[in-house]
Amino acid sequence: MAKFRHPSPLSPEVQEEILQAFADVLAEIQSPSEALAFIKDLLSTQEAEMLAKRIQIAQMLLKGHRYDTIQSTFRVSANTIARINEWLKRSGDGYRRAIEKLEKKQPKLKKLPIRMRGGGLSDLRRQHPVMFWPQAVLEEIVRMADEKKKKQL
User: Fold this and answer.
1) Contact 50, 76 (CB under 8 A)
2) pLDDT band of 114, cuts 50, 70, 90
3) What is the pLDDT of residue 58?
4) Burial of 132 (0-12, 13-18, 19+ CB in 10 A)
5) What's the Cα-to-Cα distance from 77 to each of 47, 57, 81, rounded to whole Å?
6) What is the mean pLDDT of residues 126-135?
7) d(CA 138, CA 33)
8) If I label 79, which of 52, 87, 99, 143 is the partner at 20 to 30 A Cα–Cα?
9) Where are the alpha helices (DSSP H) in the chain?
10) How many whole angstroms separate alpha carbon 79 and alpha carbon 87?
């Protein structure tokens, strides 16, 4: 059983014991709907999404996808991808087994890369125009300027 990787006020023995108890709880889950109910009770939406993304990122790394593709697909930093890649290199057995089971159970998953919600800066600008008022003012000044002034600007 893997040890926690950060300092803990708990002894290594207690860490191992509670991690084993948690693994036992996970192993007793009988169905996807039961697992989903447990996840929703245990984790915040953001935490659950983060963990789900890690599995998908690992899957993409194992299939040879580039960091920039993964970043644009899941809106994560290169550091997050590098950390998962490092876990895969050092051991990664848990990731690999989970991904193998996932692919056997759902071989027809949508082809990656998936485009996440939101279209970047243009969508943000439409949704929150007040945040971009300096840029809007500057664009309007440039638009209204004659050719000589445009060159100066």
Assistant:
1) no
2) very low
3) 93
4) middle
5) 16, 11, 7
6) 62
7) 53
8) 99
9) 12-28, 32-42, 45-62, 67-74, 78-90, 93-105, 121-127, 133-144, 147-152
10) 12
| Cis peptide bond prior to 9, omega within 30° of 0 | no
Q: Which amino acid is at 34?
A: E
pLDDT of residue 18: 93
Write the CB contacts of 150 (distance below 8 Å, at least 6 apart in sequence): 142
What type of residue is 105?
Answer: K
User: From the centroid of its chain, how far is CA 9?
Assistant: 29
Q: Distance between CA atoms of 91 and 80, rounded to whole angstroms?
A: 17
In this predicted model, what pLDDT tens digit does every residue of 71-101 receive, in sequence order? 999 999 999 999 999 989 888 788 888 888 8
User: Across all residues in the chain, what is the average pLDDT?
Assistant: 79
Q: Which two tokens stand for residue 100?
A: 């193998």
Residue 75 CA, chain-centre distance (Å), reads 7
Rounded distance between C-alpha atoms, residue 137 and residue 146, angstroms: 16
Place of tokens 């996440």: 116
Cα separation, 109 vs 94, in Å, equals: 20
Q: Is the peptide bond before 113 cis (omega within 30 degrees of 0)?
A: yes
